[in-house]
Amino acid sequence: MTGPAESAGGADAEQLKKLGYAQELRRRMGAFSNFAISFSTICILAGGITSLQLGVEWIYHLKLARAAAHSPAEDAKVARTYANAYIKAKGPQQALVRRWIEYIEKNEGSSR
Fold first, then answer.
1. Handedness of CA 83, 87, 88, 92 (dihedral sign)
2. How many CB atoms lie under 10 A from the CB of residue 71?
């Protein structure tokens, strides 16, 4: 009894014979071939997921290292810059901003 794959392979072989070519490839997949394709697919997917996880962790650690290297003195310098711009623009809370900047500058070294 022939299955659909074998009969289709026979028709293909006849078509190839008419064109002057010989049938060279088998149209059958055994258990080992099926296992090999499945195993390859699973390995590629697992490797991709692992690579993605490592990439995300790498980005997270870079951001963490950057945050750890960030110093309170930089915060105070940036705060002073923004406060000066606010005071120069004659904002309504100038006294509060000045006190806030004094507090930051006084405590900038004690936060770490």
1. positive
2. 13
The 3 state secondary structure assigned to 88-108 is: HCCCCCHHHHHHHHHHHHHHC
Q: pTM, whole model, 2 decimals?
A: 0.34
Give yes or no for a contact between 94 and 87, defined as CB atoms under 8 angstroms apart.
yes
Taking a C-beta distance cutoff of 8 angstroms, is the pair 73, 112 a contact? no
Identify the CA nearest to 23 among candidates 4, 10, 32: 10
Report the alpha-carbon distance of residue 74 to residue 70 in Å, rounded. 7
Q: For 13-45, write each residue's pLDDT tens digit.
A: 888 899 998 888 777 788 898 899 999 999 888
